[in-house]
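Page 47, continued from p. 46.
Same chain as before, 537 aa.
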Amino acid sequence: TMDVKQETGAPEKIKPPTELEETDELETRIKKYLRGDGANLEALQDKKLRGQLTVREKLYGKSAEAAAKAEKWLMPSEGGFLEAEGIEKTWRIRQESIAREVDIASSRNQYDIVLPDLGPYTLDFTSSGRYMAAAGRKGHLAVVDMKNLRLIKEIQVRETVRDVVFLHNELFFAAAQKKYPYIYSRDGIELHCLKEHGAVLKLQFLKNHFLLASINKFGQLHYQDVTMGGMVGNFRTGLGRTDVMQVNPFNGVVALGHSGGTVTMWKPTTSAPLVKMLCHRGPVAALAFHPNGHIMATSGKERKIKIWDLRKFEVLQTLPGHASTLDFSQKGLLAAATGSFVQISGNFSESQSYSRYMTHSMAKGYQIKKLLFRPYEDVLGIAHSMGWSSILIPGSGEPNFDSWVANPFETSKQRREKEVRSLLDKLPPETIMLDPSKIGTVKPPSRKQNPTKQERESEVEAAVTAIKDKPMKKKTKGRSKPSKIVKKKQDMIGRTKRPFLEQQMKEEEALSRKKQKASEEDELPKSLQRFARKKAT
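Result:
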């Protein structure tokens, strides 16, 4: 380091440029976590309060600094989006242009798998994004390792397959087939046939509760616990057949879109929907939830896509256009597809206003069945009538993964440990509710109901019996005469009955006042009083 003498003559150490940049960067990060500017504590007269608030402000500063350092060292990667220059538009940038600019590993995520004889296809990713399950309508099931694009196993079940979903990890997946849903291992071995579910149209898995949810063609919603095998819930929706089903990742509530334009939200412990909201004037074609659980996107047949705020159940924005499938990415991008056209919208302002970000057109004749963003990657999986495809969407995936939550590079030992840990942390079905923040809070006291006449009489009798059975003390000089003992007991019984009688009198007075008030309200106006029947005197 260099030494420079100030006017006072004392040398001052000058930090090298790299250290200065790091300090500035850390200060910028700290500002992000601070709760605004600190309060002016010098104006406070109370010394004790000023001392307490000073300690609190120091604590906030230390926690903000710790969070900034954790972000710097534990989250080294930063997500980015496409940026256009001048009058250029991001939605005009083609996949070919992106492929020329990205690295070799990312360019491998652009591909088309063409299997025209087995489609249309549907797909699902594991929570880490490492594995993909693909299911063709004509019975083709495949599990693919997306890290090296290696086919792990494929089987032909020789009957219609409507949907596929992974269970808690890549070792098990469920397929909704012609008559019943089946559970298979990763090696293609059939483990279970779930006959109670019937002919299922859509499957969803609640990973925190280990529940497999399904909706069949008769509009019945089933919840099955995959750890113990028991049926947790079986409800008739009463709103007809539907294949629009999605789980809210925030609270585990299952949402169904119906042909009447309504969206209902269910939990496995009640037979009635938690919420029933009219979203569209026509049938609901698709719905999706934002990863934060507070925003829902729905698509209707009347060619409108609506963004909903689930905290107030209000429409935030209405976008024109039809979508047969919707999906939110980890960073909040919304993908919508109809026919062979895909549009990705982004919310790049704080006003929750989605605008067009990217577009992509498949080959003519490809009918898109399902869109699904791959977790922790800037990749969008497209399942269509001729197979499945993958395109690059910059800024869609979370750049930093938490190995305790989802590790794309986990070993078999880590997977076993994670499975045991997740089973120990399994949540009961009763914890599924619209506002899970209520769990762990104190329940407010309920209004005490008035006891019935029989309960009050039995309570009085019990108190009187206890007084009668109470032994009296022996006293001298004639104070223990039988007549005096009887009189004392009668006085004690009277004192015991008094609070009950006073309460009864208060209730009778309140009831008479209520009746009197009701009769005054029912009194006819002056113009009609002459027609009223006179009371007998």
